[in-house]
Design brief:
- The chain contains 5 helices and 2 strands, in the order ββααααα.
- It is mostly helical.
- It has a domain of 80 residues.
- The chain has a two-stranded antiparallel ribbon with strand order 1-2.
- β1 and β2 form a beta hairpin.
- The longest helix has 20 residues.
- It starts with 13 loop residues before the first strand and ends with a helix.
């Protein structure tokens, strides 16, 4: 059978469980009754499928997974910077903050990045770029001190 004559099934679903048994992983998906293709309902239990899945973002568009993980890493990185007393000292010596403490560093970093919350680093590429820039400056300063 040629690939062009194969009918595919498309439907939206939600991951509700993932468990492991002796044969591998078992993925449980939930579908709205109107979304279930009749072909899938008629197939026998144990039928094999080749599956292609794309995670959707909040705007119902395919999600860029690499970008998602980079965003999570940026959020963690910003948090670690703000907890670092040496980063406070770096900002204080550069006259960016008046008092070398976490609250001042956190407030300064959000303003510098142009974001109201570190969580915005997940989706704001410009803020992530500025975060990388300040991290480079801080690392250079840290190597000298």
């Amino acid at each position: 059978m040629s690939p062009s004559s194969v009918k595919t099934m498309q439907f939206e679903c939600v991951k509700v469980a993932l468990k492991q048994d002796k044969t591998g992983y078992v993925l449980t998906l939930c579908m709205h009754p109107d979304e279930i293709p009749m072909e899938l309902m008629r197939d026998f239990v144990g039928a094999r499928y080749q599956t292609v899945m794309v995670r959707l973002d909040q705007q119902e568009r395919p999600m860029d997974r690499e970008n998602e993980f980079a965003g999570e890493q940026a959020v963690r990185s910003a948090g670690m910077l703000c907890h670092d007393p040496k980063f406070w000292e770096f900002l204080n010596q550069d006259n960016q903050i008046l008092e070398a403490n976490e609250k001042e560093a956190t407030s300064w970093l959000r303003e510098y990045l142009g974001i109201p919350s570190r969580a915005d680093l997940k989706t704001n590429l410009e803020a992530r770029s500025r975060l990388e820039s300040i991290k480079r400056d801080y690392n250079k300063w840290n190597q000298k001190n």
